[in-house]
Amino acid sequence: MQIDTSILIAFILYFGAMLAIGIYFYRKSKNISDYFLGGRQLGSWVTALSAQASDMSGWLLLGLPAAAFWSGLSAAWIAIGLGIGTYLNWKLVAVRLRKFTYVADDSITIPQYLQNRFMSKSTAIRSVCAVIIFVFFLVYTASAFSTGAKLFQYVFHFDYVTALTIGSIVIIAYTFLGGFLAACWTDFIQGMLMFAALVIVPIAAAFNTPGLSSDFIVSLGGDNFLNLFADASGKVALVTIISGLVWGLGYFGMPHILVRFMAIKDSAMIKKSRIIAMIWVVITLVAAVCVGVIGLAFLGNHGYYTDAGAAEVIFMDLVTRLFPGFIAGVLLSAILAAAMSTADSQLLVAASAVSNDFYKALFRRNASNKELMWVSRAAVMIIAVVAYLLALDPNSSVMGLVSYAWAGFGASFGPVILLSLFWKRLTMKGCVAGMVVGGLTVVLWENIPALAATGLYSLAPGFVIALAVIVIVSLTDKEPSREVQELFARARSVNI
Known about the structure:
Elements: H1 5-26, H2 32-37, H3 44-55, H4 63-71, H5 77-103, H6 110-117, H7 124-156, H8 160-207, H9 214-221, H10 238-245, H11 255-263, H12 270-299, H13 314-322, H14 325-363, H15 369-390, H16 398-422, H17 428-447, H18 449-452, H19 459-476, H20 482-493
Helix pairs in contact: 1-8, 1-14, 3-8, 3-11, 3-12, 3-14, 4-12, 5-10, 5-11, 5-12, 5-20, 6-7, 7-8, 7-14, 7-15, 7-16, 7-17, 8-12, 8-13, 8-14, 8-15, 9-12, 11-14, 13-14, 14-15, 16-17, 16-19, 17-19
């Protein structure tokens, strides 16, 4: 087996830098608030890029370019939905959630916030949240581990299990050590790396493709390849457009993104963060589509890959063909960055649910900060091991795993978070019912052949049904107490 030494050196330097950050912030995490929220001291740039880097997992460099290579611009509907969803999440949720979590007894996790939102002593809502977070983050983290494994397979020709093991160990190590601050600062760096790689690669491919033109691309991909509203059949079904756009709704329910809003130093900084985040998202999504479209022209053959799944290596193919060893290693590290920036955040949020919303809430109400931090670190290890086992299938689709988890979170938490911030008539029973129904709808839709055959992304029915259940149950339940309504009003008006 021949290993490119220069690429290996680039990877080692990258891993070393990430681990160094983890060790540094290990010394900075002195209490549970530091470990999970960084003491609410994040600045605009770190908040923006860590939120978006943790959002855009390996699918941004693998799944989306592959879909664009195979289907053309019609594959961009997911990107459009995500762009719209990103803006709405920053605009509608960020400021309100930062204020409400602070007013609601300085809540440091989403489950804790929801319990405090209703001033309830019952742990039912936190327990339901913890189970949902644990289940769907296992799938999500497995997708990140799988992304890293496929990269190592491609570059170093490792067997899949070896590749998976190496990538997983690095992610676990710095998350275990540094907690939230390590995750945010590594996400910041990883976000910059992802941005640079996604911009550089399609530009380089374009300059190295003689005779590049829209006509040339169409001659390879078919008459409708560059038509947003048409695929090979001549049209894009309405269900395809809806399924792509509805991805944007998922943002409202992503715990690993929402905690970034909670951690920013000052809610006034969120406007600047929103601008930074939107520039990053729009450019990276457009660039990822361009990787697939221009990649077709560069490779010169639409049948170069057998299907969209096989085409997930197109970014790696372009990098290794266009750039020399060390530079290729740096650019390929962007795939690791995408995987790691997502996995570390998800491991941390899942660990917080286990330690703070399960262990402390149900078994050790008086647990010390030190005890909770070590329970959290143990949870990181346990969750990572289970995710590792889920990722052992070398044929698993990164896009498939991500879409399942994204739908699960979006349907379970999305309607709940929105209504908790905007509707004072919301009740705890409505929240619990909506979360359970939303998650179950996604699971059933994905696993019942007749429902899956509709082609409609499970997030759409999951979100709508959960929203309806929350409203109906809340309106039939008794009105929230005066204290809860006063808390709602205070959160709307507080200036922090």
